[in-house]
Amino acid sequence: MNTDADPCWSILVVEDEALLAEEVRGRLEGLGHRVVGIADNGAEAIDIARRMRPDLILMDIRIKGELDGIETADLIYGELDIPVVFSTAHSDRDTLQKAQIAGMFGYIVKPWREQDLVMAIRLAMHRHQTLAAARRHHDTDIQSFLEAGIYPVVLCNQQGRIFAANSSTESVFGYPREALAGQPFELLLAEQARGAWHTLREQTFARHAAQQAEGSPTFSAQRRDGQEFPVMVSPACIETSTGPSLCLVIRDLSDAQPSADPVTGLAGRAKFRESLVNALQPPAGRLALLLLDLDHFSEVNDTLGHETGDLLLARAAERMREFAGPHGLLARLGGDEFALVMPGPDGMRAAERTAQRLVEKLSMPFDVDGKLLHIGASIGIATSPDDALTATDLLKFAEQAMYAAKSAGGGRVARFASTMQDSAQKRRVLSDDLHGALQRGEFSLHYQPIVGFDGGQVTKAEALLRWLHPSIGPIPPWEFIPLLEETALIHEVGEWVFDEAAAFAGYIRQRLGRAVRISVNMSAIQLAARNVGAVNWRRKLAALPLPESSVGIEITESVLIKDQQRVKRRLHDFRSHGIAVSIDDFGTGFSSLSYLKTFSIDFLKIDASFIRGIASDENDHALTEAIIVMAHKLGFRTIAEGVETVRQRDILEKMGCDFAQGYLFSRPLPADEFEAYLRASDGRGPVADRPRRG
Ligand code: C2E
Ligand code: CA
Ligand code: CA
Questions:
Q1: In sequence order, which ranges of 513-576 are alpha helices (DSSP H)?
Q2: What atom of ligand 1 comes closest to residue 605's alpha carbon?
Q3: Quick one: 293 and 245 in the same domain?
Q4: Ligand 1 pocket test, candidate residues 521, 588, 665, 669, most atoms within 8 A of CB
Q5: pLDDT value at position 3?
């Protein structure tokens, strides 16, 4: 079991077997806790507890000295209010009984497993905090203290009648709060559990009088609709204005919570929101919200079908569940988006650690139906009260952080920063300003030459869109193209790019007597639209007049994965009209070369990230070479992107790459400079640094 979800507690270990004590220390530290000391007898334990004030004590029942563990615990709890978890030998039935009666906050039986220890600590701390909150707030604002927890909490009077309950109780049991008021607590239990409940109630008050704490028995509970489910009830006596009352924290032990998402068994969006709102009610403690979005999930879903997709979601949810812990609230918000709320005093640190581990865990392949599937996750974190106080803001900020993680390449964790608010604000401003930018003539195209290794001729170029914002200045494409896509302006602007590029190709042909094929980038959204197509563009080309071979399109691999039949038809259309098709950024997506074989494709543009490492990284070198060889076998020609050094160029040439593009030859140039560049290269490649063959 993973425990990264747990806060780090300071713990005193009371154990008289030195070797065992050290082992326990190692375990606890391995779980992220801090061991403040080890005592082998009661007097020493009390002394250390007084000086160090640990959050929790792990207490062996049989220890050296006059006091046994139970007596020591009683003294410490009475004086210092520190919760105690007992550890006891299995053979020692009598003591176990005694420990259960003294109960305190829980016990573990030796030899315990790590997960028993983790669970015992979590429950003890939760109970302790609930009790502490109850004492702090007394009954003046009892409701708000009840709402602070994620679990159902019910307050009963001495006769066992309910006088307060939190909204979590409402949603778990299905009764409105008003209906619960005045009802006996048995209402929430299955019939066979009622006897045990009365015993617990009596014992709890008796122990309270004797200043002993209570155990946490399990019961069979019953929802309003009659459905039974197991719960653990942690009782405690608290003083209210009407005298001693029972505070019952109820933990649902069944896996399937009500209103769960059927695919993953996790809470759904509605339930999640409700719980988050509750958890944020004052006096809410600190909490962190992790918003998780799976990377590449839609590609799996689209290629392998929804059934596999659902199985994958369920598997991913299983891995996430290990991180939630008993206080954590995990939910599927929809699609491949999940949320995890982690309460805790050092929320951010624990949250970041958990998020990092989650990302690692989810990047490991999933075996679904015998297929190994690789996905990944991007996580955004926002905390309360630091970043936000309301559920709406917290979700919004965590989402902004999540987008930041995604746009940084995915597979990572981003913490919300107020600059993201600024950038969200900037996005809104830019998005507004994009409307009318085309009409105001703020767009232009730059052209970057693509150089052939075979003779060094510049026979191709890529058109790259530029936006000069009237007050901010040039805005980079990665900032405004997504905005164009969101606002559907991409269609209008995309058509303009095509017209402009085609016209420029015609101009070059006329002025220089040279054929330079200009390719335009086409976003997935454009390709999916109905009214964009080869026929339309061919008509435009025919009107110029210009041979079809003057233009090409560049699309990314991910486009090939969605709606394959339609994309196949479209690409075929383009190609049959002489419009060359390039696959952009190849190697960064999900597809394999053999998959590409079934599409009509002319060129593969090998992503710059491979080229960057080609001279220094064996992997990049080997991969690039393999891509080139395979591409040729499949009848595609290759273009290396982002070639910046002579060494990279030489290596690519040796590998048999067909074309190169990059700063080594030229940056993208405005139309007039590109024309000058072509004239200078005189049809035989760039003057300054001409690629050679052989
Ligand atoms: P892309 O299609 O991968 O374009 C290549 C990018 O690499 C360009 O960035 C180019 O300036 C840059 N580049 C070229 N050579 C080098 C080099 O040697 N080193 C480095 N570090 N970078 C180099 P740019 O112009 O910023 O464009 C970014 C992206 O914006 C493009 O990536 C493309 O996806 C998108 N984009 C640009 N124009 C359009 C357009 O008209 N329509 C659509 N849908 N997307 C466009
Ligand atoms: Ca491109
Ligand atoms: Ca590219």
A1: 524-528, 534-542, 558-561, 564-576
A2: 3
A3: no
A4: 521
A5: 38
Q: Which residue has the higher pLDDT, 506 or 134?
A: 506
Domain carrying residue 199: 149-252
CATH of the domain at 332: 3.30.70.270
Within this chain, do residues 234 and 299 fall inside the same structural domain, yes or no? no
Distance 403 CA to ligand 2 centre (A): 23
pLDDT at residue 146 tops 60: yes
- Cβ of residue 94 lying under 6 Å from some atom of ligand 1: no
Please state the atom number of ligand 1 nearest to the C-alpha of residue 477. 30
**CATH number, domain with residue 600:** 3.20.20.450
Average pLDDT over residues 187-195: 88
Q: Say if ligand 1 is within 6 A of residue 479 CB.
A: no
Helix, strand, coil content of the chain in percent (nearest 5): 45, 25, 30
Distance from residue 554's CA to the centre of ligand 2 (Å): 6
Task: Yes or no: say if 292 and 340 are a contact pair by the CB < 8 Å rule.
Answer: yes
Instruction: Mark whether 448 and 423 lie in a shared domain.
Output: no
Rounded mean pLDDT, 298-305: 80
> Is residue 606 scored above 50 in pLDDT?
yes
pLDDT digits (tens, 9 = 90+) for 451-507: 999 888 899 999 999 999 998 899 999 989 989 988 889 999 999 999 999 999 999
Q: Is residue 534 part of a domain?
A: yes
Q: How many domains does the chain have?
A: 4
SS3 state at 239: strand
- Both 582 and 637 in a single domain? yes
Residue 546 has pLDDT above 80, yes or no: no
In angstroms, the CA 417 to CA 91 distance is 54
CATH number of the domain encompassing residue 211: 3.30.450.20
642 C-beta closer than 6 A to ligand 1: yes
Atom of ligand 1 nearest to the CA of 668: 11
Task: Examine residue 437 and state whether it is found in any structural domain, yes or no.
Answer: no
Please identify, by atom number, the ligand 1 atom nearest to the C-alpha of residue 448.
14
User: Does 136 reside within a domain?
Assistant: no
For residues 585-592, average pLDDT: 74
Residue 419 and residue 448 in one domain: no
Same-domain pairing of 653 and 530: yes
Ligand 3 centroid, distance to 2 Cα (angstroms): 41
Predicted confidence band of residue 101 (pLDDT cuts 50, 70, 90): very low
In terms of domains, do 193 and 243 share one?
Answer: yes
CA of 656 to the centre of ligand 1 (A): 24
**Ligand 1 site, residue 235, Cβ cutoff 6 A:** no
Give, to the nearest 10 degrees, the angle between helix 306-324 and helix 297-304.
150
In a domain, 1, yes or no: no
Q: Kindly give the distance from the C-alpha atom of residue 522 to the centroid of ligand 3, in angstroms, as a whole number.
A: 11
Q: Which has the closest alpha carbon to 459: 573, 552, 596, 577?
A: 552
Strands (E), 223-326: 228-240, 243-252, 287-295
Dihedral pair phi/psi, residue 153, rounded to 5°: -130, 130
How does the average pLDDT of the chain come out, rounded? 84
